[in-house]
Task: structure prediction
Amino acid sequence: MARYTGPVCKLCRREGEKLFLKGERCYSPKCPLERERDYPPGEHGRTARFHRRRQSDYSRQLREKQKARRIYGVLERQFRRYFREAERRSGLTGENLLILLESRLDNVVYRLGFADSRAQARQLVMHGHFVVNGRRTNISSYIVRPRDAIEVRDGSGKKKYFKERVERLDEGAVPGWLSLDAKKMAALVLNLPARDDIETMLDEQLIVEYYSR
Result:
C-alpha cells in the first residue's frame, strides 16, 4: 500500500500549524513549530515567511484539502474516491467526507487511545493486532459501521505494548460515537460520527469547492 514515508514535521511546517502527526512529540518542545521554525520547509522557506502574499481562493482550497489528506494519512487518489463516495450519499458532501475519514479503522484505533498517532494506529492495524466482529482485520482503510465490535486480538493482548497501553486507556476521553471497555481492550461503534463529534479543525466546505471547480 502506497503511503507517505518522508519527514512528517515538514508537512506541519508547510501548512503552518500543528497537524499532530507524531503523537506526544507534537506536544513537546521538540516540535519544530515550538522552536521558531514556523516557516515553510525548503530553500526559500525562511524568506517566504516575510514575503507572504494574500492567498487566492484556489490556494486556500488546495491547502485545506492537503491538510485533510495529511491529517488522515490518505494519498490523493484514495482521497478523491472518498470525495466521490461522499457526493453519492445524501446530506452535505463535506460532512459526509469527514464522516468517511473518521470511520476508517486506523482512525478509530487512534480515537480509542490504542495509539499516539494515526500513523502508529495504521501500523498496528496492518500488523493484524485487531479483530472486527470476530475477524482479524489488517486493512487500515476498513470503514466501520454501527454495532461493529473492535477488539485487540488475544495473542496481541499478551504483548508488552498492549499490557502497558491498557493502563493508559481513558474511557472518558473516547468520542461519544464509540464505547470502550478498557479492561477487555474492546470497543463498540455505537453510531456514525456526527460533524460535532469530529474535533479535527478543518473547513470541509473549502475541500468541496476545490473538487467542484
In short: Residues 54 and 60 are 10 Å apart (CA to CA). The mean pLDDT is 84.
